[in-house]
Amino acid sequence: MGKIIGIDLGTTNSCVAFVDNGEPQVIPNAEGSRTTPSVVSFSKDGERRVGSVAKRQGVTNPETTVFAIKRLMGLAFDAEPAQKHARVVPYRVVESTRGDAAVQIEDHQYSPPEISAMILDKMREVAESFDAQRSATIAAGKIAGLNVRRIINEPTAAALAYGFKEKEGKRVAVYDLGGGTFDISILEISNGVFSVKSTAGDTHLGGEDLDNALVEELARRFEDSSGINLREDRVALQRLKEQAEKAKHELSSSLSTEINLPFIAADESGPKHLETKLKRSELEILVSEIIDQTLGPCQQALDDAGVKREDIDEILLVGGQSRMPMVQSKVADFFGKQPHKGVNPDEVVAMGAALQGAALVGDVEEVLLLDVTPLSLGVETGGGVFYKLIPRNTTVPTRSKEIFTTSVDNQSFVPIHVLQGERDMAEDNKSLAKFELAPILPAPRGVPEIEVTFDIDADGVVNVSAKDLGTSREQNIRVVASSGLTEEDIERIIGEADAYKTSDQKRRDLAELRNAAEALLYTSERAVAECRELVPEEVIAQVEADVEALHVCIDEGDAIAIKDALETLELSAYKIAEAMYGNVDLDAPVESEAQSDS
Ligand code: AMP
């Protein structure tokens, strides 16, 4: 078996690691760097470069240099984040034939996964060349092509790298602010078991937003002094961006820096240079609000995990942007304690992934990784109501079981509609699969017992089974819970559920009222048919009139009217029972014969 490597395919930089003698180690690239820029460039003759060479030549050929491709992954061309991205990058973002966002270089179109694959390929090369040097020590060290063993989320990987030797129980917040995305996760680590309690974040918030704020400031300063607007000049803008990012890095360790961009523009009077000083405090004023945007998701993650700020034992910083002192101080203020130092924020993800890989093949003592479901899973029930069997943020692997029944007499099959989402009504959620449990034995509604089980394994694969407890007949289906869903989708779905909460609740109440009304109609109509000869005519006539009235109300769909008609029918139907059994209190507990005799 080939050695398992862990790769962090980052928005800005990528990193690859493997586990040697139980210890995770980052593999440096050919230039000796431990991380490789996630940049791909194409030269005029079609030659492709990846990594720092690509990044360097991006200054002179910005239109043919692709960076931050991860931000476009899985986005439709007209999606707002794709449009936002297209406005700030020098390369052309176009619409592919499938409607997705793609990158146009000369007359060739590349999809975001294609560009990402080029970066992954480079990381494979890094690992391979290293592996060749060390063939004596790495057993069977051939990494030919990538066989994806498991995809784990970044914060989880980071916590793995940090805590794989941790023995006592700890509650950890992983704050991951990278170039393009922000994630916060709350995990519990104890005895090698990693359990993600909640995750939240913003897929379009990161270091680049800080760069853009700084670019805007520099462009403003230049315009003020020279009257020239650099924002329209793609080449100048790219140089500005490079310098802005560099200045931002420098201001993480010094209190002021200088920005020099000679020959950035020219007018009739000759070439113009951008020369300006920037203080750390000035940068902080520019970006303070952007960093504050990470705190909302932090609170959300705490709430979802059901813990308070003071319950967090360690805060782990991940992502290059978390090196900024202001980020660290805001995080410290929010949680009321200093974040953990000593883990390299650029490398932890790849190291954690390598550890997980090693655990998969038994190279290190088993670590158990528990992830969470991003969205709720369940089935459609009577009246189109979505019934959740596994709520979102449940730790996987997990299993949940529930007994359902039929809604029609002599139903010959039970349709099972598996859905994923947060809305109350089935039709508003994502349909994952449909199948039928058939045949089932003919029986009155409400009698058959159908046991539905949801089983999610550690890879997020959901096995749904339905079993008729009467006959033990069983049917099942396997689905991947989040197939086709990007993090973006997940955020949107959760947001929509909040926005529609009140109207969804109304629709759900109405559907449930209808279900109750239909059940009462069913028993009342049966009672009329069976007891017609045995109870006074006026009782039957009243029930029949109330049944009719309830039918009309259901057709009209007014919740209050249905409720009133339902209560009226309940009272008149009760009279049938009264007439049949004498004046008994049907709600009174049934006494045993022995007790009533005594
Ligand atoms: P990542 O996606 O984790 O590679 O993070 C990359 C982001 O971190 C980019 O926006 C970088 O500009 C930023 N970054 C890297 N190093 C530093 C630093 N020393 N100070 C501030 N930001 C940094």
Mean pLDDT: 82
- Radius of gyration based on Cα positions: 31 Å
In the sheet with the most strands, the strands line up as 16-11-12-13-17-20
Number of strands: 26
Give the low-pLDDT segments: 132-146, 586-598
How would you sum up this structure, described in words?
The structure is a single chain. The chain has 598 residues and is an alpha+beta fold. It has 15 helices and 26 strands. The chain has a 6-stranded mixed sheet, sandwiched between helices. Strands 1, 2, 3 and 4 form a 4-stranded antiparallel sheet that branches. Helix 13 (537-556) packs antiparallel against helix 14 (559-581). The longest helix is centred in the C-terminal third of the chain and has 31 residues, at 501-531. The model is unreliable at 132-146 and 586-598 (pLDDT under 50). Adenosine monophosphate (AMP) binds at residues 10-13, 178-179, 207-208, 245, 248-249, 252, 319-321, 323-324, 346.
Task: Give a brief outline of the structure.
With 598 residues, this protein is α+β, with helices and mostly antiparallel strands. The protein is 37% helix and 26% strand.
Throw out a few tags for this protein.
598 residues, alpha+beta, 6-stranded mixed β-sheet, 4-stranded antiparallel β-sheet, 15 helices, 26 strands, binds adenosine monophosphate
What order do the helices and strands come in, and which of them pair?
Elements: E1 5-9, E2 13-20, E3 23-26, E4 36-37, E5 39-42, E6 48-50, H1 52-57, E7 65-67, H2 80-88, E8 92-95, E9 101-105, E10 108-110, H3 112-133, H4 154-163, E11 170-177, E12 182-190, E13 193-202, H5 207-226, H6 234-250, E14 256-267, E15 270-279, H7 280-292, H8 295-305, E16 314-318, H9 325-335, H10 348-360, E17 368-372, E18 377-381, E19 385-390, E20 395-396, E21 398-404, E22 414-420, E23 430-437, E24 450-456, E25 461-468, E26 474-480, H11 487-499, H12 501-531, H13 537-556, H14 559-581, H15 593-597
Helix pairs in contact: 4-10, 5-6, 5-7, 12-13, 12-14, 13-14
The site of adenosine monophosphate has 18 residues, from helix 5 and helix 6.
